[in-house]
Design goal:
Elements: H1 2-26, H2 34-51, H3 58-63, E1 72-74, E2 80-86, E3 97-102, E4 107-110, H4 130-136, E5 140-142
Antiparallel strand pairs: 1-2, 2-3, 3-4, 4-5
Length: about 160
């Protein structure tokens, strides 16, 4: 039994080390993974369907308790945008992605880490305008095609918004 343990323990340790090294070297999920593209397609479709509603977004804007909800942000100047956000903590297969459409119909995306349920919005002040929000959270324009909103716009070393 003692001989078995002398052999088994190092083998188990080596296997665990190999697993951790493999996981550690895989790095974060790919920006162009099929899961991220599928999520982006769904997010864009949901936003487009909200825009198609007859009274959108005025019912939602009237019901806001604060300057944002889980899918809508209102700015000090009265402008607004609709968004969807996914964080890699919610789904490890998908790198952070924020997709938004402004009231004028422009599409934007960001890799800023808004965290789960975009909780970062609760930690910052309301932006004066959508342009300020777009600048501070490193949103980049795109054409509404899910495969054109996958590039990196923000890295953790880029700093935090100044709102």
């Amino acid at each position: 039994m003692k001989r078995f343990l002398i052999i088994a323990i190092p083998v188990v340790v080596l296997v665990l080390v190999a697993v951790f090294v493999y996981i550690g070297t895989k790095g974060p999920p790919d920006l162009t993974s099929k899961h991220r593209i599928a999520w982006a397609k769904t997010a864009i479709s949901e936003i487009e369907s909200e825009f198609a509603q007859p009274n959108f977004p005025y019912d939602e804007l009237g019901a806001l308790d604060w300057w944002h909800s889980e899918t809508l942000i209102r700015f000090e100047d009265g402008s607004w945008l609709v968004f969807r956000n996914i964080c890699s903590k919610s789904d490890y297969r998908i790198r952070d992605l924020f997709i938004a459409r402004t009231e004028s119909g422009e599409w934007f995306h960001s890799t800023f880490h808004f965290c789960i349920d975009a909780i970062v919005l609760k930690m910052v002040d309301q932006a004066p305008t959508s342009k300020d929000f777009i600048r501070e959270f490193k949103l980049s324009p795109f054409d509404g095609d899910p495969e054109s909103c996958l590039d990196t716009t923000w890295e953790p070393g880029d700093g935090l918004p100044n709102l």
